[in-house]
Specification:
Layout (H helix, E strand, L loop, with lengths): L1 H11 L1 H33 L18 H5 L13 H9 L14 E11 L2 E10 L1 H6 L15 H7 L3 H8 L15 E10 L6 E10 L6 E11 L3 E9 L4 E3 L6 E3 L2 E5 L5 E7 L8 E9 L5 E8 L2 E20 L2 E18 L3 E10 L2 E10 L8 E6 L2 E15 L7 E10 L2 E18 L6 E17 L2 E17 L19
Antiparallel strand pairs: 1-2, 3-4, 3-14, 4-5, 5-6, 7-8, 8-9, 9-10, 10-11, 11-13, 12-13, 13-14, 15-16, 15-22, 16-17, 17-18, 18-19, 19-20, 20-21, 21-22
Helix pairs in contact: 1-2
Length: about 500
């Protein structure tokens, strides 16, 4: 019966029947082709040689894997942020020795253009590091000559101390919309604990203003503080002609004072800074070296007219040398030292920040906020004896204030987590320093607090319980209603910061 109906339909409407038959045939053909491609993709995914020779492939977030395999446009021009850090501190770190035998960075089918005889010639290029490719047993067959690591390969995979710290700590000049912004500032900051817990030194080498062609200059800031010793502040400001630095290099000279990176990977600090109010000057000669390779690579947020950059070359450093105020000198030998590096524009900007040594853990947290935008993203960073331990989004950060006529921070609570890990940092503030600064966009005065306190870390880290305690330094802001304090405008906010 069905056959008779089909024959009758073809006889009555032959054109329509032919069209339907052709469409059906095309549909079946496309389905067969797609199934064949899918089978080939599955086979490729299982073929170690086609995915680089390893068991795991690391790609940027958001890449369409199927399109990547077939060479589609979404696979072009991608990059992996912080790739050297990921390679050194995760894929080849001591923490994963039992899980990862070797890892190799790999670039495949990158589109580049060669300029030849006035024309641009498209070229498909690839690249790998010879020693890593050989360790992964995927090195290409060498037809002639030698194929070995260059110095740039070695500095990317296994940098020496001078190479590492030079890559983390280079100076900058304003770019894009930040050019000509008078609130631009960049500084090397060192925090040194004095012997026998007798106090600490905040030391800053800074350039600020319309760098390098407008009105700008250099500044040295230092504060000696501690329980029972009060505070002594030191400041020196110099003209641009007496400041020397080079973009991409860590060295900075301000007058007769300087910070420089030595050939051994240690920082040399030299400073002469007069005391505010005409007291004895502060003089120091220090060598600061890493006690362990714990660092935060350079990060930059914002864009357009607002940019803020931050790096921490030394989460765990040690200082040796001499510090003098007048004729009273203190000898330092292996004094615990922290060093970070900041740059960017600082109009209408506040931040939360803290760093502490808690047992074998180095903890760092922070976040920068533009007053007109509200609080930006904040993170908590952990390092230990194996290096990088993890970075966690801060879910809650609260400051508890004292109840008196002039409230000050008393407790700080930070809760951060990722996946099944959750960490709580509780800080009991034991020393406070406050500076009043006017900030555009805020009614009243912004109060900048520099704090010293005891901290306790608890929760789960890497799936295991953790509880450690220690000491640290912390910073936060508050707004006091009423008229702004006299003094500099917020365009010098970063300059008056006595970190």
């Amino acid at each position: 019966m069905i056959g008779r109906l089909v024959i009758a339909s073809i006889r009555q409407r032959p054109a329509r029947s032919l069209l339907l038959l052709v469409g059906y045939a095309l549909g079946v053909g496309v389905t067969i082709a797609l199934l064949s491609i899918g089978g080939a993709l599955v086979a490729q995914a299982r073929d170690q040689q086609l995915v680089g020779g390893g068991d795991l492939v690391v790609l940027p977030a958001g890449i369409d894997l199927e399109t990547l395999k077939t060479g589609g446009v979404s696979s072009m021009f991608f990059t992996i942020d912080q790739a050297p850090f990921l390679y050194r501190e995760v894929l080849t770190s001591a923490r994963f020795d039992a899980d990862i035998m070797t890892a190799a960075p790999w670039i495949e089918d990158e589109l580049i253009y060669l300029e030849y005889d006035g024309d641009l010639v498209p070229i498909s290029a690839g690249g790998m590091i010879p020693s890593a490719a050989k360790a992964l047993r995927v090195a290409p067959e060498l037809v002639e000559g030698e194929w070995m690591d260059l110095e740039s390969d070695r500095s990317w995979t296994r940098p020496t101390d001078p190479q590492l710290y030079a890559s983390l700590d280079g100076m900058h000049v304003p770019r894009a919309e930040a050019v000509g912004d008078s609130t631009w500032a960049e500084w090397h900051y060192f925090n040194v604990l004095l012997p026998e817990d007798s106090g600490w030194l905040y030391l800053t080498y800074m350039v600020a203003g319309d760098v390098p062609h407008g009105r700008w200059g250099g500044r040295l800031l230092a504060t000696l503080a501690g329980p029972g010793r009060g505070e002594r502040s030191f400041t020196l400001q110099v003209e641009p002609d007496d400041v020397a630095f080079a973009e991409g290099e860590p060295d900075l000279r301000i007058g007769a004072s300087s910070v420089s990176l030595g050939s051994d990977g240690a920082y040399r600090l030299s400073a002469w800074i007069p005391e505010d109010g005409g007291g004895d000057p502060l003089q120091l000669e220090l060598s600061v070296a890493a006690a362990s390779r714990r660092y935060l690579p350079p990060l930059e947020i914002g864009g357009g007219a607002f940019s803020s950059g931050y790096a921490v070359p030394l989460l765990d450093g040690r200082a040796t040398g001499r510090l003098c105020v007048g004729s009273a000198c203190t000898e330092l030998s292996g004094a615990r030292t922290y060093h970070d590096h900041n740059w960017g524009v600082w109009s209408q900007v506040t931040w939360d920040w803290g760093q502490a040594q808690l047992g074998d853990y180095s903890i760092l947290y922070g976040g920068v906020a533009k007053t007109e935008r509200g609080q930006g993203s904040r993170f908590l960073y952990v390092a230990d004896g194996d290096g990088f331990g993890g970075v966690y989004a801060i879910r809650h950060l609260a400051v508890e204030w004292s109840i008196d006529s002039d409230p000050t921070p008393r407790l700080i609570s930070v809760v951060a987590g990722r996946g099944r890990d959750s960490l709580r940092l509780e800080v009991e503030v034991r020393h406070r320093r406050v500076t009043g600064l006017p900030v555009e966009g805020l009614e009243g005065a912004a109060l900048f607090y520099q704090l010293r306190g005891r901290a306790e870390l608890s929760g789960r880290l890497g799936g295991s319980p953790v509880r450690e305690a220690g000491e640290g330094f912390f910073e936060t802001w508050a707004v006091r209603p009423g008229p702004e304090p006299s003094g500099r405008s917020n365009t010098a906010g970063a300059q008056t910061r006595r970190r």
